[in-house]
Structures are given as C-alpha cells and as structure tokens.
Write a structure and sequence with these properties.
Elements lengths: L1 E2 L1 H14 L3 E7 L10 H11 L3 E8 L8 H13 L2 E6 H4 L8 E4 L3 E7 L5 E7 L2 H17 L1 E3 L2 H11 L3 E6 L6 E6 L7 E4 L14
Parallel strand pairs: 2-3, 3-4
Antiparallel strand pairs: 1-7, 2-5, 4-8, 5-6, 6-7, 9-10, 10-11
Helix pairs in contact: 1-2
Length: about 210
C-alpha cells in the first residue's frame, strides 16, 4: 500500500513499538532536514535499547554531508542507543541495484521511501509479500557486505580519510627531463614513478574523484 509521509511517521512509530528481533534501514545523507530527536527516531532507539538488533546504514551521497550538524547528531544518538551504524558511499551503493531508502522489520514487511530531488519524502510503500521480503533481504546482505560499521566518532574521520586519500607529489632533480613520483597513503593507490618533460604536460588520474 502507498501512504503519505505524515502517515508514514505514525506507521514508523508503530513498527518500532512492535518489532522484537531485527530492524534494518538505509538513510541518505542528503535527506531534507529532519529532527533526530523526534518520536520516530526516539522510538527506534528505544527498540535497540530493549534488544532489537537494529542496523542503520547511511548512504553518504557527498563527503561534505558528514559536516551537517543534523546528520552528526543523528549518528551520535544512534551510536549511544546501541543502533549499529554503517556507512557506504553513494558510488558503491549505486552498483548494488537496490532501492535507496528502505527498511525491513523483523523480516516480516518492508517500507520503501521515495524522495524528490531535494531529499524530501514524497510517499512510502509498505509491502509484506513473500517475494518482496526475499528481495529486500538480498538487498540487505549486499549492503552489509559492501558497507563499513562505524563504532565511534573517531571512526567517522577514518572513513572520511579513506574516501579522500591525500596525494603527495615528490620531485627528483631533473635527469633527462623532469622525473617525479606520486605516492599516496591510501590503499587505493600504488607507488609508481614516471619520467617526462613537464613542459605543457597534463596527466589525468582516471580513478580520482
């Protein structure tokens, strides 16, 4: 069934009060401003505190989103309550071919949220069909396999540094043209060096975003 965002907030509170085993939800980092302390999120944290295995995976659409105060507060409150927090980059997420914003509760029903281009909720879809549950369980497994659990604020900084590795340039004295090497502290780069005449020289790194 399709419901409005207003109806979805009430429905969310209902499922958080009634789930007893597991909860899994994704959350896009560019969502329209929300209140991390509203009753919907508070009820979710209460569920985690009473023993529900609740995982929230944040889809980081832009690394700068992690500077949003509302997102920082959401993550801090979730961690404090016992919700397991995971991060996954939007670039990786797009390869998984899943819905962007959804939740699955006690493996009994699914809620999919559709948003507009500004991150505002448009409508919610509730689905308890067996085939939909199975498909969503497969989405969850793919997401968990490709995401990183974040256990503290310190680990957020570590995750950010791996998304934006530093690139260090080292220049050697010219011998038969300018020779230099490029190295990075990221696992995504390998040490290498090239020799060339640097005059009117442009070098593009195809894997660099």
């Amino acid at each position: 069934i399709h419901i409005s965002p207003e109806e979805g907030n009430d429905e969310g509170r209902f499922h958080f009060m009634n789930i007893s085993k597991t909860g899994f939800a994704t959350f896009p980092s560019d969502a329209e401003d929300w209140n991390p302390n509203d009753m919907y999120f508070t009820d979710g944290r209460k569920a985690a505190q009473r023993g529900v295995n609740f995982i929230r995976t944040f889809i980081i659409k832009d690394i700068k989103d992690l500077d949003r105060k509302v997102l920082q507060l959401q993550i801090q409150l979730d961690l404090k309550s016992g919700i397991k927090v995971h991060f996954i980059s939007s670039k990786v997420y797009k390869t998984l071919e899943t819905e962007e914003d959804f939740g699955i509760w006690d493996d009994e029903y699914v809620c999919i949220i559709h948003r507009d281009k500004n991150g505002k909720q448009r409508e919610l879809l509730l689905d308890s069909r067996i085939e939909s549950i199975a498909k969503t369980q497969a989405w969850r497994e793919k997401i968990l396999k490709n995401s990183t659990e974040i256990k503290s604020v310190k680990e957020i900084q570590s995750w950010k540094s791996h998304q934006n590795p530093s690139l260090n340039l080292f220049f050697d004295p010219p011998v038969d043209g300018e020779k230099f090497s490029l190295r990075s502290n990221s696992r995504d780069f390998r040490d290498f060096e090239i020799s060339t005449n640097l005059q009117n020289f442009t070098w593009e790194l195809p894997w660099w975003n």
